[in-house]
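Hi team,

As requested, here is the filled-out complex form for the guanosine-5'-monophosphate run. I kept the field names the same as last time so the parser does not choke. Let me know if anything looks off before we queue the next batch.

— J.
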Amino acid sequence: MQFHEREVAVLIGEEALQARIRALGVEIARDYQGKELTVLAVLKGAVFFATDLARSVDLPLTMDFLGVSSYQGGTETTGEVRITSDVTKPMAGKDILVVEDIIDTGLTMKFLLENLRARQPASVKVCTLLEKPTRARTKIEIDYKGFVIEDKFVVGYGLDFADRFRNLPFIGVMKGR
Ligand code: 5GP
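And here is what came back:
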């Protein structure tokens, strides 16, 4: 028995996940042909996705990382976001692809996009592995999307529950929640 099996059930298996990421990589490579892409991964959750995605994009690119933490009001975000670790290079003039693990209420991404646009990049696009549209509290234009999911709390492939389960190679749901 693997360590997670008592608590987590598979929602999107490893093969389906990797196949979808490869397809997104092909799409992104086609769209950014001739440009110098900056893949900006949101810490910590999107790191697993962003590194697999970057490996699927057949273009020269650079990677940077932005740490954010959302203030929680009860179980959900209040929309007030704090940057806990900033990027290492100037974003001005760059073609930025923000890579996120999940867009839930959308409030974190709204804050991030406002913050990034103030730095005057050449372009900003959004790529998220998962979207929970039923929970949206603001409209976010998503340019690249892995999967649309129901309103369930998911873990794995970067997503945590109390900082655990990030290392699962699939997306799962917590049993009995
Ligand atoms: P937002 O509500 O601002 O769109 O999402 C804020 C953050 O909440 C996400 O980046 C993610 O870290 C976390 N989050 C939202 N839904 C889930 C979920 O189902 N599972 C996990 N582990 N984190 C989630």
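Two things worth flagging: The pocket of guanosine-5'-monophosphate is lined by residues 45, 70, 77, 101-108, 153-155, 159-161 (CB under 6 Å). The chain has one domain: 8-174.

Thanks,
J.
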